[in-house]
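User: Hey, quick favor. My workstation is busy. Could you predict this chain's structure for me?
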Amino acid sequence: MPAKITNINSDQLYKMIKNGNSPFLLDVRSAFEVLFGKIKGVKNISLGKLPSKLDKLPEKSKPIVCICASGSRSRQAANFLVQQGYTSIYNLDGGTSAWMRSGHRL
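Assistant: No problem, here it is.
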């Protein structure tokens, strides 16, 4: 059975981080976009560079949360990672925009 992508919201991600169960946070926006705000602890690899940077990710069974500005590019990244054999993939609904609106600190 292929891995599925789990959508999570900002509150769910915040709880994961606060409980010490922080997954690998993969921000697929451009480096320029990240300058305007990011979630603490993210690894920035833009969507276009992701195929050539898989060596920068944890092992395929570790949880990874894909993040972008709104949730669209991160969904593409999540789909790509599942195709590459990653098995614990999350997509942050609403991206960093929703994270900032939620009041969680960056």
